[in-house]
Write a structure and sequence with these properties.
- There is one protein chain.
- The chain folds into four domains: 5-130, Schlafen, AAA domain (Methyltransferase, Cobalt-precorrin-4 Transmethylase, Domain 2); 136-199, no CATH class; 206-368, Heat Shock Protein 90 (2-Layer Sandwich), CATH 3.30.565; 396-476, Winged helix-like DNA-binding domain superfamily/Winged helix DNA-binding domain (Arc Repressor Mutant, subunit A), CATH 1.10.10.10.
- It is 33% helix and 19% strand.
- It has 16 helices and 19 strands.
- It has helices at 5-14, 30-39, 61-73, 121-130, 146-149, 152-161, 170-176, 187-193, 229-243, 263-276, 320-328, 338-349, 403-410, 418-424, 432-444, 466-476; strands spanning 20-23, 43-47, 82-86, 89-94, 103-104, 107-112, 115-118, 180-181, 184-185, 206-212, 218-225, 246-251, 254-259, 285-289, 293-299, 355-358, 362-368, 447-449, 462-464.
- The strands form six sheets. A six-stranded mixed sheet has the order 11-10-14-15-17-16, covered by helices on one side.
- Helix 9 runs antiparallel to helix 10 (263-276) and helix 10 (263-276) packs antiparallel against helix 12 (338-349).
Length: 480
C-alpha cells in the first residue's frame, strides 16, 4: 500500500482508530503497535503525527526506516512492513498477515479500538481458537474419566459405528485414532463415547422442535437429545422424518415412501451442523420445523479461513478430529462437498435449494417445505387438536392397547424390516398409520435404525432401544 499526501490528509482527518495509529516521534513502543496490527487486520502507523492530528514531522528518514524494519524483523515470527516517506511524516504500513499469532518481546498484543493492548492468557487462548490454530476437539476433556465413563457398551457401539476390526486393544485403538492422549480422552473422543453428553457439555445437545404456523409462538412438540453425538444424529433424523409429511408412491411392485424433503439433504445439513459447530459456545444446535420451512441453526458462525462466498466450494473443519471420525463412520464424505451435495440432491428431488444465512455467531440452513405457504390465518388461542403423532409426551408410559405398544411387542423377537413388522401386526402391507407410528417411536427413542448411517438402505431394519425394552417389560408385568 502506497500512501500519498491526499491519503495522508484523509487518515489524519479521520483520527486514530482500529487501523490507524499516530506517533509523534521516533520508535518508542513501535514493536507493540506493529505486533498488534499484525494480529488484527493490519493498519498504518504515522510517525511524526501527534495524538491530536498535528504534523510534527521527523528527521533522518533513512535511519528511521532501518530502525523500523529491524523492529519488525525482531517480532516472532518476523512481520513484513512497508515503510515510506510522505513529506515530513514516515508511514509504516502493516499488511494483513498470514502467520498469526505474532509476539514482540515475548508478549502478544492485539488491537482494541484505537489502542493496542497486551493479551492475557485467556485472551491468547481465545485468539488461537478464533484463528483456527488450536482445535477444541483435540484438547483434553477433563470431565471424562476413562475408568468411570468409558463403558463396555459404549466401546462396543463405537467399534461397530467406526467400522473397526474386532479384537483391537481398546486403548491402542483410541490412541491410534488420536482420541486418547496421555491417558486423557480428547473432547472428540468424549463426545463420541459418552452415554450422556450433558455430563461433558450442557450445550453439546441438539434441540428439535415443532411449531404451529410460521413463528415460535405456539410450540407443538419439543425434544432435546443428549446421548453421544452419533446417537444424537440418529435421534434428530428420526424426529425430522416423524414430523415431516410422507407420501406413498405406488408402482408396479408396491409402494415407496417419499418424504416431502430429501432425506439425504437433511442428513448432510444435520451432520454439517453437528461436526462444524463451535463446541465452546453456550448455545446448542437447534432444529426447527415450521409450517412452511425447516431450519437447522448452528452456533459459532464460519470457522477461521472461511467466508460466505466459499460455501459449497471449500471447507475448513472447525473440528478436524471429529470430522475424521464421522468420515470413518460413513456420515460425511470428502471435505468441502457437503453443501454442494445438498444443493444437487434438492435439485434432483425437485425441491428448492436451501437458503444459508451466515452471521458472526450462527449459520442457519433453511429448507422450504414444498407446497406450503408462509401465509397463515388467525389461530385459536389454545391451538387446534393435534394429530396423535404430534402430541407432546404427556404420559411416561405408552398405553397398553396402543399401536405403538403393539409394534414394540412385535420387535421383542429381534430386528425386523418394516414389512415384517406389518406382518407381525396382522397387516397385509405397510399402512400409512404404521409408517407414522414407526417414525414416532424412532423420534421418542423406543426403537432405532439398525443402519443409521444409511437411512434409506434396502437392508434397513428396526430394533428396540433400552427405553423400548423397559417399556415392554412394564407392559408385560401383571397388574395387582
Amino acid at each position: 500500500m502506497n500512501v500519498n499526501e491526499t491519503q495522508l490528509t484523509a487518515l489524519i482527518t479521520l483520527g486514530e482508530g482500529y487501523t490507524t495509529e499516530f506517533k509523534k516521534s521516533r520508535t518508542s513502543s513501535l514493536g507493540r503497535e506493529i505486533c498488534a496490527f499484525a494480529n488484527a487486520t493490519g493498519g498504518v502507523i504515522l510517525i511524526g503525527v501527534s495524538d491530536d492530528g498535528e504534523i510534527a514531522g521527523v528527521t533522518d528518514h533513512n535511519r528511521l526506516k532501518s530502525e523500523v524494519q529491524t523492529i519488525a524483523r525482531s517480532a516472532e515470527p518476523p512481520i513484513a512492513v512497508e515503510v515510506e516517506s510522505i513529506g515530513e511524516v514516515l508511514s509504516v504500513t502493516v499488511p494483513a498477515q498470514q502467520s498469526k499469532p505474532y509476539s514482540f518481546g515475548g508478549k502478544f498484543f492485539i488491537r482494541e479500538g484505537a489502542s493496542s493492548q497486551q493479551m492475557s492468557r485467556n485472551e491468547i487462548r481465545e485468539f488461537f481458537y478464533s484463528e483456527g490454530l488450536i482445535h477444541f476437539d483435540e484438547t483434553p476433556c477433563k470431565r471424562f474419566a476413562i475408568d468411570r465413563d468409558l463403558t463396555v457398551a459404549s466401546w462396543e457401539r463405537f467399534v461397530k459405528r467406526a467400522r473397526l476390526p474386532d479384537g483391537l486393544d481398546m486403548y491402542a485403538a483410541l490412541r491410534n485414532l488420536h482420541l486418547l492422549h496421555d491417558d486423557q480422552m480428547t473432547q472428540a473422543g468424549a463426545w463420541l463415547l459418552t452415554e450422556d453428553i450433558t455430563g461433558i457439555s450442557r450445550s453439546a445437545t441438539v434441540t428439535c422442535a415443532l411449531f404451529q404456523g410460521t413463528d415460535k409462538v405456539h410450540i407443538l412438540d419439543r425434544k432435546e437429545y443428549t446421548g453421544d453425538l452419533y446417537s444424537i444424529y440418529g435421534d434428530c433424523m428420526a424426529y425430522l422424518q416423524s414430523k415431516l409429511t410422507t407420501a406413498l408412491i405406488p408402482h408396479a411392485t408396491g409402494r415407496d415412501e417419499r418424504l416431502e424433503l430429501p432425506v439425504e439433504a437433511l442428513r448432510e445439513a444435520l451432520v454439517n451442523s453437528i461436526v462444524h459447530r463451535d463446541y465452546r459456545s453456550t448455545a446448542n444446535v437447534q432444529v426447527y420445523i415450521f409450517q412452511d420451512r425447516v431450519e437447522i441453526v448452528t452456533p459459532g458462525g464460519l470457522p477461521a479461513g472461511m467466508q460466505e462466498k466459499d460455501l459449497g466450494t471449500k471447507s475448513v473443519p472447525r473440528n478436524p478430529l471429529l470430522f475424521g471420525i464421522f468420515q470413518r463412520m460413513g456420515l460425511v464424505e470428502q471435505i468441502g462437498s457437503g453443501i454442494r451435495r445438498i444443493r444437487q440432491v434438492c435439485q434432483n428431488y425437485g425441491v428448492a435449494e436451501p437458503d444459508i444465512d451466515v452471521s458472526e455467531s450462527w449459520v442457519m440452513t433453511t429448507f422450504r417445505r414444498p407446497g406450503r405457504t408462509a401465509e397463515v390465518g388467525p389461530q385459536p388461542e389454545s391451538g387446534p387438536e393435534l394429530e396423535p403423532e404430534l402430541r407432546p409426551e404427556l404420559e411416561p408410559e405408552l398405553r397398553p392397547e396402543s399401536m405403538e405398544t403393539r409394534v414394540i411387542n412385535v420387535l421383542r423377537h429381534g430386528p425386523m424390516a418394516k414389512s415384517a413388522i406389518a406382518t407381525g401386526l396382522g397387516q397385509k402391507s405397510v399402512s400409512g398409520r404404521l409408517n407414522k407410528v414407526i417414525r414416532q417411536l424412532l423420534a421418542d427413542g423406543y426403537i432405532e435404525f439398525t443402519i443409521p448411517e444409511k437411512l434409506t438402505s434396502r437392508l434397513q431394519q428396526y430394533r428396540l432401544t433400552d427405553k423400548g425394552r423397559n417399556s415392554l417389560e412394564k407392559s408385560q408385568k401383571p397388574k395387582r
